[in-house]
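Deliverable D4.2, example record:
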Amino acid sequence: MSEKFQAIVIGGGPGGYVCAIRLSQLGIKTACIDAGGKLGGTCLNIGCIPSKSLLNLSENFNKAKNFSNLGIEVGQVKLNLEKIMQNKDKAVDNLTKGIEFLFKKNKVSYFKGIATFQSSKKILIRDEKKKETIVEADKVIISTGSEPLSLPGIKFDEKIILSSTGALSLKKIPKKMVVVGGGYIGLEMGSVWLRFGTEVHVVEFLDHITPGMDKEISKEFMKILQKQGMKFHLQTKLEGVQKNNNGAKVIATDKDGKKIDFDCDVVLISVGRKPNTKNLNLEKININLDNKKRIKTNNKFETNIKNIYAIGDVISGPMLAHKAEEEGIAVAELIAGQSGHVNYDVIPGVIYTSPEVASIGKTEEQLKESNKKYKVGKFPFLANSRAKAINKPEGFVKILADDKTDKILGVHMIGPHAGEMIAEIGIAMEFGASSEDIARTCHAHPTFSEAVKEAALSVDKRAIHS
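Output generated by the structure prediction step:
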């Protein structure tokens, strides 16, 4: 006999577990099926959370090496990679157990195993011991996330040829790492190992890093990373990777067709991610996919099969944990007859390097392309008293506002704690605020957030401190 539910969520990542909890809060009998063995998905187990742990620890290590320059005398600073990895794993373990507790608290039934559609309402679950269970539901939400994308002829072994998963669990510090792809993940992981002493080279096919980011921020970001020691090879095409006794040889060609070889210990392939829909048996129930193998949905997250929904990385849009969470709550509320929605114009993006990079809304390039008239306000952290006091003067805040209405269209920043400061802009944009609204809001002194206020003042050329 199969167990019946009103709703089943396939996938226990940020979108899936949040969706399951919200469904249950709304009085819907809910189950969540997850194949990973631990809840939290890629983000919590092999993505956002462990990478932030390593970014924080590597930054602390880097700071400690330079304490004497600040008048703090310490002995020789040593790195214990094994302990650092244990600290990372402990953080992950505590958080996954926390989600299991939330499931119990909210009465969500949790099944471990691989989910496969038998029909639009019937799902087979096969656990790690090959035991099979059948469950049924009136509504099914697919939230199975994404997995690292490789390049033709290159396979991850997670020892020499790494995805982000392998880059989070190296057993020793490589002397030299080549990062293929100059996006968020590659630069974060490159930063971790750079601080631990690795020579890091970034190979990027385009003429700039962080594709899709505001170009002015992107250029400043690359300058800062170069100053830290990261080496960039732009307009360079990867031709192949050959493993050898010493690690690997990365073969590439530059914009002039000149061949470049990189001998290295490890190669991190960081060229994007792809939807993870394998094992679901989508063809059996005839769910429509787009040309990127993402599940097609309407504005209510419904697929072409009436009772099946999809959210997160398996559908179109940025592959971000917080985007998936917003969709998880929205679809749960829609299923319950409420009016859940996601404002895709106000989804922040953050790169957790040092300094951090954060953005929300339109870039200057997008505004130019759409012939939108706009004003620009900028303020450097070099003129921010808090940043100068703690010796973190790099970067700036950039605000783009409508030329006529002054409504905020986009904000981009690079500097200390940018990932936290972008939330102020998210709230402002959600309420349709103008740059004048930000400029006339009192910000505590001395704080980094004063740079946001000054950038808003700068939109009308009335910044005080620059």
